Request: fold
Amino acid sequence: MSRKWNSHELPFLPGFTFRDLTKSAFHRPRTLYFKNGYALPRRPTVGIGQDPLLSDQLLQQEISELSFDIADITYGSRDQSLVEEFIPAHVALDKKVLCFNAYFEENVLYSPDEDYRVRPVVIYYYLEDDSMSITEPKVENSGIPQGKRIKRQHLPKNEHGEHYLWKDLNVGMDLKVYGVKYHITQCDDFTKDFLKSEGIIVNDPEPMPVDPYTKHRTNPPPVYTAPPKLNRTHQFLTMDGKVLHFFALWDDTDSLYGETRRVTIQYFLADDMVEIREVHEPNSGRDPFLMRRQKLPKKIKPQYETFPSGVLEVSTEEVDEYYSPKDFQLGQTIKLLGRCFLLYDCDGFTKEYYQQNHPDMEMEPIEVPKKTDVLYERKKEVPPYNGFGSLEDSLQNCLSLIPEPPKKNLQKMLENSDIVLRYAARLDSQNPHDEGRQFILSYFLSNDMISIFEKPTRNSGIIGGRFLEKTRVPKPGSTVDNPEFYSPADFAIGATVEVFSHRFVLTNADRYVLTYLESVSSEIPHETLESLQQKLGVETANNQPSDQNEPSS
Reply:
């Protein structure tokens, strides 16, 4: 109840009431709230339009004013609650469902394999509103539309408008719904306890009948073996995609440009056909298919041997026997269409196939004769140097029409990108004007290149600066076909390095050179390390500054 419908205390008559324009909500307050999925009752604190409700004391006072004074002995105390607590059915029976297992029989027409079909279902009864639903469990690849048969609703019981209640359900009874008779076989434990608590005796569960067609499918049908000539379908279904793979040598030395070639022979078990392919080599100019996939006749009937077989294709009527897996033996020569092939190896699947189906045949690979190695391993000759750039640059002109930069060892470049070995050197020349010229030889470990820088000398008349750009320097006596380049192992103190007809004598080195070479001492000769240790060790022991021959930038 609310008292704010008339704030001016006017009679509650038409024309004396006023509408509160500040109100915007006129709905009734909620009396339920949900906790963990369950609906629980809650007493409202406000009325319609958010008006405050009368308190219990005011309510009892108004009731007492309207009532007569009656003794407490007759009617009890006034403090006693006037209204008992009421819990609605949709709260008390929320999410309480009875579950029954049942089945129905469906007649099958015009089928020689079955007369009827047994289809199991599950019946759900919702206690909160006495509604029911029927669901059929789905079976994979059944070809029958399954799932929910009847949506949740009140199922009619008779023509008088009555519907089924939980009192009408029990194990072993028939439930007729929309012309279909469902027979209940069993129920779950909650349903059984609920019915017993209401005084209903639950019948004993019944077994689910077996579907006759499903039972017929479980019995294996009789197997009929067809003759070998008529059993092509079974061979295709069981052997499809299974191929025997052989490696062979084709002896073609009798032809004009005869040689021995490597080929692969594939035997298809699905249809007993054979295919021969030549091992493809780049720029060979040959078709890899030596023989397309076909059946190879092994023995032709005598009456057809005199007929020229090259005129028409050989039919099955003319052939007495075709090639089979028994004819392919490793280590033997087989003749196919006038060509001789030496079988020397096969793949793993082929070996397993012969172990299972032909255990009497030994499939051991043989070594290829040495005289054929030269015929299959094409000799890779390096083209001659054209005089432009390095040897790698010259080779790129032969590999492609538009030369590309040669590939580099990226790992070596990243590991040694900042490592440079610097040596002091003098020019070994018979010209007296070259005396006193000082050079710095730098060796770059990232790409094995050498650069030479000449230190400026006063009043010499020779301009210092870059003497040699970064390049790879071959050793004297090396050829273009087999070049040999300088490495840190060749740079010892006092050694002579010949750089494009100029001879340089190493006189000193950085201390970092000795530190690095000692870290890779297993790759450096002992004489080179000893010369550096003697040169740098004497200077350290005497505690003297480096002479004018020490490298500097």
The domain at 228-375 is CATH 2.30.29.170 (PH-domain like).
